[in-house]
Design brief:
This protein is of the alpha+beta class. The protein folds into two domains: about 250 residues, Formyl transferase, N-terminal domain (Rossmann fold), CATH 3.40.50.170; about 280 residues, 5 Propeller (Tachylectin-2, Chain A). Helices cover about 20% and strands about 35% of the residues. The chain has ten helices and 34 strands. The strands form ten sheets. Strands 24, 25, 26, 27 and 28 form a five-stranded antiparallel sheet that branches. The radius of gyration is 26 Å and the shape is globular.
Length: about 550
């Protein structure tokens, strides 16, 4: 459904992706309702001046890439077209019975609404799986117009989005896909491009679920939202928006320059089950780097000595801006750490050294997305590492590995949307070959997608820790219970959050948790001034500023 031969760029991407995956475009419904032509004088007299600033901002300043107009004449070749004149009742449009019958005769699987206004009536039942429409907001907070603007105006850290099967209620349809993104508070254009572009795969994902007979959610009850209806921003709200964006941009650059992450590692003498039940972490022994430009993060633990724990973690240096894997022994009796030693260093960045045990042997699998590989190393009894196997050639970030049912599963995010999109790969054998889950990415949620450590059981519940980066990167950990996991389905439910402990200096975030026996290992961070990072960011910003200036002047 569209209003003209022009669609927005992201809408054309959706149509092309569906066609590429053998989903046939068989009908285009054009809005042929007459438009009342007004004289220039009439337009001047009757113009809604209370929206003047908003319209000017959208036309001349905002202009996101995802919403650029694209001519779709090439898409209409060999495709049947229906020109439909609708009946307008208030803000709603109703299709006449003749057009509805024509549409039903085509026996469509679904219709994508990229035009018209609020549609109601029997048109909503004219395709097998209904009429699908996007709402680029969380319908539980914001319904109606003003998508993506409201989050910045109201200082909301999260921007939701839904693909819904329309019902007669506005933005209260049947939820087909839903995701959450971090609001880019200093750039409305970037927020638009992030949310809109990253939801363009959703119609195809629903189609894949239909093909795999796992799309029962299409027939579930509609969303029950009581959120108030929103309107387009008036002049005063637009002025507020512009000043808030300016303030946020200044704040963003100040934070980028003067407040840098520095992580420390903590060993708690509490089982992870106790931390899960209590919702807090106590009895912690801390390990931090002795140089300000260094930090320790992403700890994982091996227990093959009754008196000592072997910890592997990322050691990051802001001077080369690269991490490598280091290790230390933690004495269970004295609660002291041995000197930190380098365990694995490569020309590329290494982090998140996930450890696992298989057939009596311990293994380590670090993140090496920069090298586009997922490698496994054997851990020797003295803590040294030897290369064992490459599982995948992929830009996997923060990967965990575990067995569930008949399969072994790899959970990770990828370089693009590293905090938002969760991907799953599976294999019958631990050493592969691994293949992609039928519907990757299986989850889109800035609050709980990226792994924060290995899975564990509480009773019969399989718990997956995840990073919450909604407010800022690594702000807290979310515990989710996995309810469904197989080759075609994944579903989990959020249970509770774990906030950083009350460490006086390092309480700005927590993003990794692992355990063995009676001990749980975490990391926590502070935001502080680090000269090496400041110098790097300053040079980068000056370079970008000059590049932008000269590229515009050409």
């Amino acid at each position: 459904m569209c209003d003209s031969y022009y669609l927005q760029n992201w809408q054309v991407e959706i149509v092309n992706s569906l066609k590429k995956n053998n989903i046939q475009l068989s009908l285009i419904i054009f809005n042929d309702s007459p438009v009342l032509k007004k004289s220039f004088l009439s337009k001047i007299v009757h113009y809604k001046y209370k929206y003047l600033f908003f319209n000017l901002y959208n036309r001349f300043i905002l202009r996101p890439k995802s919403k650029r107009a694209v001519n779709i004449s090439s898409l209409t070749q060999d495709v049947e077209i229906i020109l439909s004149k609708t009946i307008k009742k208030g803000y709603s449009q109703y299709f006449n019975n003749e057009d509805i019958e024509k549409i039903k005769e085509r026996k469509l699987d679904f219709i994508l609404r990229f035009g018209f206004n609020i549609i109601r009536g029997d048109i909503l039942n004219s395709a097998k799986y209904g009429v699908w429409s996007f709402h680029h907001d969380d319908e539980q907070k914001y319904r109606g117009k003003g998508s993506i603007y409201k989050e910045i105006l109201y200082n909301d850290p999260v921007n939701g989005a839904i693909l819904q099967k329309l019902t007669s209620e506005i933005d209260a349809g049947v939820i087909l896909k839903k995701g959450y993104f971090q609001t880019i508070k200093h750039s409305l254009r970037s927020s638009f491009d992030q949310v809109i572009s990253n939801t363009s795969s959703w119609p195809l994902q629903v189609c894949i679920d239909i093909d795999n007979n796992v799309a029962s959610y299409i027939d579930e009850n509609p969303s029950k939202s009581t959120a108030p209806m929103q309107k387009v921003e008036g002049n005063f709200s637009t002025i507020r928006l512009v000043f808030r964006l300016l303030f946020n941009k200044i704040k963003f650059h100040i934070n980028d320059l003067f407040f840098t992450e520095r992580w420390v590692i903590g060993v708690s003498s509490e089982k992870i089950e106790e931390i899960y039940r209590n919702g807090k972490i106590a009895n912690i022994y801390w390990l931090k780097a002795d140089k300000r430009r260094l930090y320790y993060a992403d700890p994982f633990v091996v227990d093959f000595d009754e008196n000592k724990l072997l910890l592997f973690f990322e050691e990051y240096d802001y001077k080369p801006r690269k991490g490598h894997i280091s290790s230390t022994f933690f004495n269970k009796n004295t609660k002291e750490f041995s000197p930190v030693v380098s365990a694995l260093e490569k020309p590329y960045h290494l982090s998140f050294p996930y450890v696992f045990k298989h057939d009596g042997q311990w293994f380590l699998m670090p993140e090496s997305s920069e090298n586009n590989e997922l490698n496994v190393y054997k851990i020797e009894s003295d803590g040294s590492l030897s290369f064992y196997k490459t599982l995948l050639h992929i830009d996997a970030i923060d990967t965990i590995l575990f067995n569930h049912g008949e399969n072994w599963y790899l959970f990770f995010t990828r370089e693009n949307n590293s905090n938002v999109d969760l991907h799953i790969y599976f294999s019958k054998d631990i050493w592969g070959p691994y293949e992609s889950h039928k519907n990757n990415p299986v989850k889109t949620d800035i609050r709980s997608a990226r792994p924060a450590g290995g899975v564990f059981y509480i009773g019969n519940d399989l718990i997956r820790p995840a990073q919450n980066s909604a407010v800022y990167y690594g702000s807290k950990i979310e515990f989710n219970v996995i309810n469904t996991l197989n080759e075609t389905q994944f579903e989990e439910k959020h249970i509770k959050s774990i906030e950083p402990s009350s460490n006086k200096s390092f309480r700005r975030g927590i993003h990794t948790i692992s355990s063995v026996g009676d001990f749980t290992i975490i990391d926590q961070k502070q935001h502080t001034f680090i000269y090496k990072s400041f110098a790097y960011q300053l040079k980068r910003k000056i370079r970008n500023l000059f590049f932008k200036f000269f590229s515009q002047s050409k």
